[in-house]
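PROTEIN–LIGAND DATA SHEET

This sheet pairs a single protein chain with one bound small molecule, copper (II) ion, given as SMILES. Inputs appear in the order they were entered. The predicted three-dimensional arrangement of chain and ligand is reported afterwards as a token string under its own label.
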Amino acid sequence: MILLISLVIGFSVIALFPTFSDAQSEPKTFVTHSGAVVQTSGEIIDPLYAVSTVDFDPMEYLRNFNYGQVSELPDGTVVREFTIIAEDDKIMEVSPGVFYNVWTFNGTVPGPTIRATEGDLLRINFINNGSKEHTMHFHGIHPAEMDGVFEPVGGNGGRFLYEFEAGPVGVHPYHCHVMPLEEHIVHGLYGVFIVDPKEERQPADEMIMVLNGLDTDFDTENNFYAANTIPFYYQHHPIQINTNELIRVYVVNMVEFDPINNFHLHGNLYKYYPTGTDLVPSFYTDMITLSQTERGIMEFEYNYPGKYLFHAHKVEFSEKGWVGIFLVSENSKKNTQELVRGT
Ligand SMILES: [Cu+2]
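PREDICTION REPORTED AS:
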């Protein structure tokens, strides 16, 4: 009888915990109390938190511009509304086997590229679902109370409505501005804000490159560098472009800790518009140097097909991931100048 009861209890326990063996074999990612990110298939005792990993596709990010929900005021002003959600508990595998606690705007690093035309009214519904205070601080022109510095937004659902006119024309960063600032930026709370001129720029194959660094061991030095977060990504997945087609790159340097970064293009030179505020290029070069949050617009066309590198000429950065390839194909179309002239 006792044996029978034991068997019944035994089977009940197995029935109650059918996934026990699955849980043991499925790796989990979590953050320890010391801040280290660990993946294990073993039992996690008292984790700080356990989360799933974030997937980020740099190729999708590259040409993804968000224009918001568009409406119009009675006076004809275009209104663009965005909802941006901050979180700080996500883990991303930034390089094979390297897990990093990313803090995200709308689930990615960088956050979504926000794009508007000069004079549009921007409404950014900011929701902080993180555990810490966060804000959105836009570079550009706006009232003091919209600056995202002295109005920290509390975690666990805190909200703030940023409302301001888009300007000036150019490419600007946005980022969290809560102290310690360095920590909030290096974990990934930043993105790109493009303000187009009312008279549109020439048609082009447009792309965004955020230059970033990853301090995966929390020693205030970067272990990896990248264009768009994943080290070596565009070297393994070259960016496909065409000969005789205008390429426009919005480049923003968000690397912390190292005072400078730079951008070298192979087999070509580019016209460079610092901050993108002027419609006439300031330089024709194959090398620009960028300090923290320095940014600009690069424009170029390739005449010859083939593979061309682009990378930091600070070789340490390129050897730690900030390197990519443009794969240039022969363009059957007329070149951009002919298309513009309509000949
Ligand atoms: Cu923050």
